[in-house]
Amino acid sequence: MARRVTRARKGGVQTATLIPGDGIGPEVIDSAVQVIEAAGGRIAWDVQLAGKAAFERLGTAIPDALLASFRRTRVGLKGPLETQVGRAGYRSVSVALRKMFDLYANVRPVRTLPGVRGAFAGVDLIVVRENTEDLYSGIEHQIAPGVVESVKVITARASRRIAEYAFQLARRERRRKVVAIHKANIMKLSDGLFLACARQVALRYPRVKYEELIVDNACMQLVRRPAEFDVLVLENLYGDIVSDLCAGLVGGLGLVPGANVGKRHALFEAVHGTAPDIAGKNLANPLAAIMSGAKLLRHVGQKQAAGRIERAVERLLRQGRVRTRDLGGRATTRAVTEGLIALLH
Ligand code: NAI
Predict the structure, then answer these.
(1) Are both 281 and 238 inside the same structural domain?
(2) Which pLDDT tens digit goes with each residue over 258-310?
(3) Does 104 participate in catalysis according to the annotation?
(4) Domain check: are 237 and 284 in the same one?
(5) Is the residue at 182 inside a domain?
(6) For residue 269, what is the enclosing H or E element?
């Protein structure tokens, strides 16, 4: 489990690395920073470039200054970073940061929020995704023209510790059930190992129910009866895909926050990507980034400010007057930010 960062700096101010990111990143991160400050969060941000923005200005997508900053602060808020699809170029910076700092648990709470149309009622689940291995090993090669091999790496160590994280989380948050999601019927060795580790860990938590589901069936069950799910533990790729599916259950990517957690470091970020279709247009929903910021505040022990933000988000959505387009409204990113700040108390 992550060690809480409690080292308060001058006057209780916590230093944190801030990565505005690409696409809609700077818009939603700016919004999160404004809301955190208005809520009384005491954070000194160390702003660092990464991804496309860094590549264009500094010739590298992961500048040394960013790494030094995060190594020092041990906590960060990150906007999404662009990675080219299926083309040469720099590798995913998000994946690299997760590996470099061993941010092994990607934790994504997915909850029905009040007043969101199209959302399933009563969803309150947490996706716990292994964040450091699987097909994200990045080991790919062409064996012969037209034949490519991608290596899926699954280790007992990473599988055990992600299962351990999921069960500890379940116990801490008084959750009733952990479901391990897999494809061990086909990938008997790799997913079989993941499952064997989850089973071993489950034995040590007799009060938490343990179940297993094959990933395709899990997707079907999730879209039919999502309220029956509680804590989900998955390998990296299934976790990535199932997280977006779960976001869809509660109103979309604009509403789901996340955290990448390791033993010493924690990096908070929304589940969504750079949304190039709406970038720079003041249309992005900033709530996922704002709620990721609230999670950061909780992590550094600033619970009051975090609670203020979480309550204001619920009030804003319940009132339903100020919403971005993804939620069926017409409000801009800025209008949501201002509307939310007006509701903080
Ligand atoms: P995406 O999440 O950026 O967008 C998917 C759809 O959701 C789009 O229609 C977009 O407009 C919408 N959307 C996403 N966030 C929204 C928000 N806050 N408000 C309103 N609508 C929102 O996923 P996509 O298109 O697959 O990826 C685009 C880029 O983002 C790629 O370069 C990808 O590598 C990167 N990406 C980065 C992530 C990270 O840094 N953690 C995570 C996911 C994708």
Answers:
(1) no
(2) 999 999 999 999 999 999 999 999 999 999 999 999 999 999 999 999 999 99
(3) no
(4) no
(5) yes
(6) none
In this prediction, what percent of the chain has a pLDDT beyond 70?
Answer: 96
Query: Is residue 11 assigned to a domain?
Result: yes
Residue nearest to atom 37 of ligand 1 (CA): 273
Q: Which of 84, 274, 292, 323 gets mutated to test ligand 1 (max ligand atoms within 8 A of its CB)?
A: 274
Is position 102 annotated as part of the catalytic site?
no
Q: Whose CA is nearest to atom 41 of ligand 1?
A: 80
Q: Say whether both 45 and 160 belong to one domain.
A: no
- Higher-pLDDT residue of 139 and 24 is 24
Which of 249, 281, 299 corresponds to the end of one domain?
Answer: 249
Handedness of CA 134, 136, 139, 144 (dihedral sign): positive
Residue 10 pLDDT more than 60? no
| b/e sequence 27-47, b meaning 16+ C-beta within 10 Å | bbbbbbbbbbebbebbbebbe
Residue 17 has pLDDT above 70, yes or no: yes
> Is position 110 within any domain?
no
CATH of the domain at 137: 3.40.718.10
Identify the domain boundary among 233, 249, 265: 249
C-beta neighbour count of 52 within 10 angstroms? 21
- For the chain, the domain total comes to 2
Q: What are the pLDDT digits (tens) for 36-45? A: 999 999 999 9
Cβ atoms of residues 12 and 266 within 8 Å = no
Predicted confidence (pLDDT) per residue in 72-103, tens digit = 999 999 999 998 776 666 778 999 999 999 99
Catalytic residue among 52, 78, 183, 295: 183
**Same structural domain, 145 and 219:** yes
**Active-site choice (188, 216, 263, 303):** 216
**200 alpha carbon to ligand 1 midpoint, in Å?**
36
Give the separation between CA 344 and CA 72, rounded to whole angstroms: 31
241 and 263 inside one domain: no
> Which atom of ligand 1 is nearest the CA belonging to 244?
2
Range of the domain at 190: 119-249
- 153 Cβ contact partners less than 8 Å away, ≥ 6 residues apart: 133, 134, 137, 139
- Tell me the pTM: 0.94
